[in-house]
Amino acid sequence: MIEMFLWIILLVGLGSYSYYLSSLQPFPEKGSRFAMFLFAGALILWIASTSPEGSGKDLPASISVFLGGVFILIGIRDMSLTKTDVIVAPLAGVLFCIGGISLLSSRWEVANQAEQIASFLLASTMVTLE
């Protein structure tokens, strides 16, 4: 329960920061759209936290990886091709890294040594590339 609220706080915090930064740009609709998707993800997690059966343990990290991955691609396109936005890709990258590392570490106890080494290398690569 506490872990779910930390994910909600993360999504709302990143969404608020993106919304604030988008208001300082000449094309605010790009960052605002990203913020609205983050707020929608936080709302989904909040609704899932109140369900009587509970949600999957990896649901918050999966939503984070999905939103982060999609908006990294959109943000890179906006930065390189259209040159209309510079904040979506870095913030989405943070979201992608946090979600990815959370997913990799959720299986740490049941993974064998080779899987642990591969997870560590993948997590290190994600952080380095971010």
Description:
The chain has 130 residues and is mostly helical. It has one domain (2-129). 79% of the residues lie in helices and 0% in strands. The protein contains five helices and no strands. The protein has helices spanning 2-22, 28-49, 59-82, 88-106, 113-129. The chain starts with a helix and ends with a helix. The model has no long low-confidence stretch (mean pLDDT 91).
Into which percent range does the helicity of residues fall?
A: over 70%
Sequence stretches where pLDDT stays below 50 over 5 or more residues: none
Oligomeric category: single chain
Biggest pleated sheet: none
Strand content: under 5%
- The best one-word shape is flat
Number of domains: 1
* Average pLDDT figure: 91
**Which class do the helix and strand fractions yield?**
mainly alpha
Q: C-alpha Rg, in Å?
A: 16 Å
Distance between the termini: 29 Å
Strand runs, count: 0
* Number of continuous helical runs: 5
Helix and strand element order: HHHHH
Produce a short descriptive summary.
The protein is an all-alpha fold. The chain contains five helices and no strands.
Keywords for this structure?
mainly alpha, 79% helix, 5 helices, single chain, flat, 0% strand, 130 residues
Can you lay out the helices and strands and say which pair or pack?
Elements: H1 2-22, H2 28-49, H3 59-82, H4 88-106, H5 113-129
